[in-house]
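Q: Could you fold this chain for me?
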Amino acid sequence: MKQVEVSDETYERLAFAAKVFGVAVGDVVARLVEAPTEPAQEPASPPRATPASADDEPDQVAVHVVYQGKRISGRFDRTTHQLRITSGPLTGKTYPSASAAAIAVVQSVNPARAFPQTNGRTFWIVDSTGKTLRALIGPRSAKS
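A: Sure. Below is the predicted structure, expressed as structure tokens.
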């Protein structure tokens, strides 16, 4: 196994991220390097919502997470902010928020984790961009 040297500050950030996601520090690094390496190209005009299948709707956004080596997919509703799990042990279940869905995934995949609380906006990755759901819908406001 190869080793990489990082500053103490960087390691502390990686360790914090690992704690938040309930994974090892190495998994955080792997997740970072698996992210798209090329910056997303901004389209000249806004893309039109063209459903890829009868199951798709314009307000639905495909999302996923790789948690402890398991990929879980879902559909986030931009209007209601509900998230429906479409793969994995929770397939078919709908949650009132991205965070509620994230907590359910953590509890399902890692039942030994003492505190499953998870920020869904930073947990879920938007399939089309490779960015977190937070990049799409913004940070949680005092009202939501």
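A (continued): The chain has a mean pLDDT of 81.
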